[in-house]
Amino acid sequence: MRFLATLILALLLSPTALAAELIVFEQKGCVWCQRFDREIAPAYAKTTEGKRAPLRRVDIAKPLPEDLSFVVRERFTPVFVLVENGAEFGRIRGYPGETFFWGLLANLIERLDHGDPAPAAPNAAPPPSATFAE
């Protein structure tokens, strides 16, 4: 019994546990990333959405972390990708401003809660609220 309790605790505390995450692909000098950092990032972890899908930052200039090999990278930033258990549940391309961001994220969280992964989509044109990689 003690072994089982220890195993469950270890899995819950493991940094490699496959919980939901909101991955933000960003790059140095991205003005839209900086705007997101001012308007959303400080409060994000305290919100219901932030508790359901903590924010994880990935620099597009660096190699993609191995555990995200299933995510299709794009050449502009920011891109927000909601993932759980090795599946993508949707993405927000660019930072559309505080009001629209929360609404779009709510739609992604709803898809996650229904267990409805995003279908593979062809690369779409980047939104005006994006910065291209160098």
Describe this structure in words.
With 134 residues, the protein is α+β, with helices and mostly antiparallel strands. It has one domain: Glutaredoxin. It has five helices and six strands. It has helices spanning 2-13, 31-39, 41-44, 48-52, 98-113, and strands at residues 21-26, 55-59, 76-77, 79-84, 87-93, 131-132. A four-stranded mixed β-sheet has the order 2-1-4-5, with helices on one face. Strands 3-6 form a two-stranded antiparallel sheet.
Give short descriptive properties of this protein:
134 residues, alpha+beta, Glutaredoxin, two-stranded antiparallel sheet, 6 strands, globular
CATH class category label: Alpha Beta
- Quote the average pLDDT: 85
Major beta sheet summary? 4 strands, mixed
* Unreliable spans: 9-17
* SS elements, strand count: 6
The name of the CATH superfamily reads Glutaredoxin
Count of spatially separate domains = 1
List the helices and strands and how they pair.
Elements lengths: L1 H12 L7 E6 L4 H9 L1 H4 L3 H5 L2 E5 L16 E2 L1 E6 L2 E7 L4 H16 L17 E2 L2
Parallel strand pairs: 1-2
Antiparallel strand pairs: 1-4, 3-6, 4-5
